[in-house]
Amino acid sequence: MLPRETRRDYPDTMSGMEYKDYYKIMEVARDASQDEIKRAYRKLARKYHPDVSKEPNAEQHFKEIGEAYEVLKDPEKRVAYDHLGDQWKAGDQFRPPPDWNAGFEFSGGFGGGGDVNFSDFFESLFGGQAGTRNTRSRRGPVHGKGQDHHAKIRVSIEDAYQGATRSIQLQTPDTDAQGHIHSRTRSLNVKIPKGVTEGQKIRLNGQGAPGLGGGKSGDLYLEIMFEKHRWYRIEGRDLSLDLPITPWEAALGATVAVPTLGGPVDMKLPPNSQSGRKLRLKGRGLPSVEPGDLYVILQIVIPPADSESARLFYAQMAEQLPFNPRAEMLG
């Protein structure tokens, strides 16, 4: 199972829009069956339909009910929504945790479609998903290819650089005999192509929905997302890295070892380098016909004055190297 995200994991992302408790809006328990959700929708839709309702703010309530039902009636959306947990309350400021829906398998069609306008909360979770649900006539026998499925998966930058075969787990909805929705895990071995980039999709033939009437199964499209790396940041095929250097390496110039995905590489530092200076190691990003580059951003680290000899050394520097980095600012 995927770990449940908690509010404390994302202290900088809890603003921007109101969290919507779709179960509260639908007046059902979180473990309600699909039939209970359907009955609740019909009851509330009749109560708040703007053409007949005398209730205050009927039109607004009717829209909220429709949005909640759009999520809870769909096992795929509901399982993903439940993954957010119940740590938020209705009206809380909310923004989706990064990659919140990675590892969930969908058959597409998140948008409401047509002229339906859902809230920013809904769109932040389910808007813009590729794919649409297939609808088939129920008249007579049906033969055809199964529906394609989609999922986002996280991979390491190292696997993207080298290529690898990894076992992944995807969460899919499962309905029991009483109509309650549960999350089921399925495992797949996936080949990560060497040089894959974020946003690129890997197709697994026949791993989508089963075909109808003996038809061919659909495919599964896995969208690549990179795990956060301890050192590297990535944009396209290019990498960037903050490299700590000493004051004397910056002032005098030096040859230093730089960690790259292919192993350490020696790089020359020009004399009189400053923090923030960007140097390029050509071709040391993700591989391709035209490989990406590695951009090294220098960060001067000052040794602590934590001993008498160190403090004496800094005092001598202050005497022998009169320098005021704020002189221009102060006129």
Secondary structure layout plus pairing:
Blueprint: E1 17-18, H1 22-26, H2 34-48, H3 58-72, H4 75-83, E2 93-94, E3 105-106, H5 120-126, E4 149-155, H6 157-162, E5 164-175, E6 181-192, E7 201-204, E8 220-226, E9 232-235, E10 238-245, H7 247-252, E11 254-258, E12 265-269, E13 278-281, E14 294-300, H8 308-320
Parallel strand pairs: 4-8, 10-14
Antiparallel strand pairs: 1-2, 3-4, 5-6, 7-8, 9-10, 11-12, 13-14
Helix pairs in contact: 2-3
- Residue share in helices? 10-25%
Radius of gyration: 28 Å
Strand order across the largest sheet? 3-4-8-7
CATH top level of the largest domain is: Mainly Alpha
Percentage of residues in DSSP E strands: 15-25%
The oligomeric state is single chain
- pLDDT under 50 segments (min length 5)? 1-15, 109-115, 130-138
Number of domains: 3
CATH architecture of the largest domain: Orthogonal Bundle
Order of helices and strands: EHHHHEEHEHEEEEEEHEEEEH
Largest sheet entry: 4 strands, mixed
How would you sum up this structure, described in words?
The chain has 331 residues and is α+β, with helices and mostly antiparallel strands. The chain has three domains: 114 residues, Orthogonal Bundle (Helix Hairpins); 78 residues, HSP40/DNAj peptide-binding domain; 89 residues, Urease metallochaperone UreE, N-terminal domain (HSP40/DNAj peptide-binding domain, Sandwich). The protein contains eight helices and 14 strands. The protein is elongated, with a radius of gyration of 28 Å.
